[in-house]
Amino acid sequence: MTDKKTLFIDGKEVEFTDEPNLLEVIRKAGMNVPTFCYRPDLTSFGACRMCVVEIEGRGIQSSCTMPPEAGLKVHLNTDRTRRIRKTVLELLLANHDKECLTCEKSGNCELQQYSEEYGIRRIRYPEKPLDEYLPVDDSSPSIVRDPNKCILCGACVRACTEFQGHSVLGFANRGSKTVVQPMNGRPLGQVDCVNCGQCAAVCPTGALTIKSDIENVWNEITNPNKKVVVQMAPATRVAIGEMFGLEPGENSIGKMNAALRRIGFDLVFDTNFSADLTIMEEASEFLSRLKSGENLPLFTSCCPAWVKYLESEHPEMLNHLSSCKSPMSMLSPVLVELVPEQLNIDRENLVVVAIMPCTAKKYECKRPELSKNGRPDTDYVLTTQELGRMIKEAGINFNAIEPERNDSPFGEYSGAGTIFGASGGVAEAAVRTAYEFATNEPLNDVDIKSLRGTSNRCRDIELDLKGTKLVVRVVSTLKEAEKSLKEIKEGKAPFHMLEVMACPGGCINGGGQPRSYDDSKIKGERAEGLYKEDAELPLRKSHFNPSIRKLYNEYLQEPNSHKAHELLHTIYTDKFAGSYKDI
Fold it and tell me: What average pLDDT does this structure show over 82-98?
């Protein structure tokens, strides 16, 4: 047991144990100091100097880098600390693009928030000349980079390096000319960015924002000649409510269905349905590989950031990737094939929209492999954040709206489809089905808790398929995935299936989800929301979904059939030597 020690904060005795820094002790005690650069899941940087405190006998210290010590006497809001914070804010604002009213982060910007809290009404320092403003970079399909709003906190640089091991973003130049930019100063769309959006997720200002498709979708909805259908990913239902004051993890799927209809979508479907479809295909593919002994371990292919990473960094390992499309990209071509006949319209008048927790899905829907006759199967991807803005723009009282069911036949799903949104969920869902496909025996304990968790560390489980030893591994973040790839290359990999999600904790913590200071806590609550729905559903295995069975009986025939491969499987491209200019 860790020994408890005490220190004093503004005269109050506070216990601490293994907190990494003074800032965490302060927050644990229910107090607060502002910070731009600190994030609990990233290393301390101490760049912004907003979190300064005054310590008796030690003077001014940054609380994010100061380790707690027994007996310290800490003062949070002295005259000196307040003056330092206000000066920091004024200096940042003097060098900042202050078009707050039209900024994507307006109302959710930490610089804006602290400036209001500290009563900044004038700036005493010369403002940055207009001719020194840098161009906005909108070359990425997922992220817009505005260097004029960057405060050099370094959070994005650390997120890219520490989560993805990729270092796409870095500091360049010196002094007042210092900027954060992609490697070699190239546009973000022309470097090997995987579009995960974690840089935008940790950015405290509008320097990195999600590329919005809201206006495009509104234009389609208001076009009387178009029928607009929508699908929603599992992770969105346990996060959208946060934008309206609900608790993280609260399942708002019924309210989402209702809100989407009020916005004007003609049909509302659930990506959980196609998560079940993915499991039917992927479990069958996995068992086929086990039988042949080829292309093992199998890599899951649901995460577009992970797929792009393999294509650009490890193309020699693409044979390990499942050929299955992601659930989003499975459902969209099914809708394109079947809905026009259902609605008695031409294909050209059908618009398919996906609500995703993921910024990389904006990249995925533009992949040429996921289109037909030059038109993408998924026309637009909106993130959870974007949907929240649309609901507000439509004047919908989200908390008061009565829940509604989604539309048939692509709305029925099992609990296995729901847990896709959490790290380990794809593997757990696959095991539930693959075990029964392989053994013809029921898997009685479907809660495979050893695969669950929101930490980035790898988690392994060993199964017995009638005498065949099977090991499944789960990791999140590409930096952790790289360790498993190294094991494979060295011939030391003990596993047969590898699930990878690029975002820490999985899709629940995707780059398009609502943001908060303590994502480490919130992603656990979101995951619990998904597991709660899974436990409460009458069906918990994908192969028992009656709508899935009907789709195979009437249209697809069987998993991995010719028709299934035509609609539900894809190919990958070696992008190692490419310019990354063309997706």
Answer: 93
Residue 361 a catalytic site member: yes
369 is catalytic: yes
Residues 178 and 233 in one domain: no
Name the active-site residue from 242, 364, 480, 533: 364
CATH number, position 321? 3.40.50.1780
Domain tally for the chain? 3
Domain that residue 205 falls in: 88-210
List, for residues 517-545, the tens digit of each pLDDT value: 666 789 999 999 999 999 999 999 999 99
Backbone angles phi, psi at 462, to 5 degrees: -110, 130
Please check whether residue 581 lies inside any domain of the structure: no
Q: Which of 169, 198, 152 is nearest to 359 (CA)?
A: 198
* pLDDT (mean) for 412-426: 96
Which of 285, 313, 386, 480 does the annotation list as catalytic?
285
479 in active site? no
Between CA 481 and CA 489, with CA 485 as vertex, the angle to 5 degrees is 170
- Looking at the structure, do residues 206 and 226 belong to the same domain, yes or no? no
503 has catalytic annotation: no
Q: Which of the following is catalytic: 64, 153, 199, 302?
A: 302
103 classed as catalytic: no
Taking the C-alpha atoms of residue 342 and residue 338, their distance in angstroms, rounded to an integer, is 7
Q: Which residue has the higher pLDDT, 131 or 500?
A: 500
Chosen domain end from 77, 110, 139: 77
Q: Is residue 582 included in any domain, yes or no?
A: no
Which of 539, 57, 583 lies closest to 273 in space, CA to CA? 539
In the residue annotation, 313 being an active-site residue is answered as no
Considering the domain architecture, whether residues 345 and 486 belong to the same structural domain is answered as yes
